[in-house]
Write a structure and sequence with these properties.
- Helix 9 links the parallel strand 5 and strand 6.
- The longest helix has 16 residues.
- This protein has two domains: 147 residues, 3-Layer(aba) Sandwich (Rossmann fold), CATH 3.40.50; 65 residues, Putative phosphatase, domain 2 (DNA polymerase, domain 1), CATH 1.10.150.
- By secondary structure, it is of the alpha/beta class.
- Helix content is 47%, strand content 11%.
């Protein structure tokens, strides 16, 4: 692998599909919620829109399916129902290899942050337990910290601000096309980890510096990337 983390001082992780195998639950919850309100969201749609805030996702699907934006009250209602559905689903497993990546990154002296478009409070709270010692709430950028979510660069720019490093000294680990677009727009080298059903070409079109297919593959190669 020609890409190197040798001169990096911070590593920023997306959450869903990177730290947790939670995207199947999100996909089912979004599909059921949209169906209840007369719209359609396939698994492919969910993965393509992953990383956007719930607000933006509902607005975009409403425009596509109904030709108009959803009202603020309707957005709150739909997202509330989606969140309710998500909470009833089996707990998503920690993504294999993710905790090993955290251990190796921390041992190398990298600052660790999470940058997610999620507003799922139960998952935001859980990550602080499962990655205890590496992540605290002040090292997380969520849907509550930014007005414009991914694919805008704002979440990752906020992450850089918290880390106190320039874009050139950071690297992002992302699994979603919109997330990769956001981090690249922020000027950050991005490792794509394709843990979902999308074709590699969809992620490669967003210009990551490296494409892998699991967090375990990243863990297995992290020492060589750091060398």
């Amino acid at each position: 692998m020609s890409f190197s983390l040798k001169n990096k001082s911070a590593i920023l992780f997306d959450m869903d599909g990177v730290l947790y195998d939670s995207m199947p639950n999100h996909s089912k919850a979004w599909s059921l919620a949209m169906e209840k309100y007369g719209m359609h969201m396939s698994q492919h749609d969910v993965y393509l829109n992953e990383g956007a805030t719930g607000h933006d996702t509902i607005v975009n699907v409403s425009i596509r399916d109904r030709g108009c934006e959803a009202s603020d009250s309707e957005i709150d209602e739909i997202y509330g129902y989606k969140a309710q559905l998500f909470r009833t689903m089996p707990e998503a497993r920690v993504m294999p290899g993710a905790q090993e990546v955290f251990r190796k990154a921390a041992a190398a002296g990298l600052k660790i942050l999470i940058v997610t478009g999620s507003g799922q409070k139960n998952l935001i709270e859980r990550v602080q337990r499962d990655y205890n010692g590496y992540i605290t709430r002040d090292r997380m950028v969520t849907a509550f910290e930014v007005t414009r979510g991914k694919p805008f660069p704002d979440p990752y720019l906020k992450g850089l601000e918290i880390a106190g490093v320039p874009a050139s000294q950071a690297v992002v680990v992302e699994n979603a096309p919109l997330g990769i677009r956001a981090s690249v727009a922020a000027g950050i080298d991005t490792i794509a980890v394709n843990t979902g059903p999308l074709e590699d070409d969809i992620l490669l079109a967003e210009k990551p510096v490296l494409l892998l297919h699991s967090m375990q593959e990243l863990a297995d190669n992290l020492n060589s990337l750091l060398a």
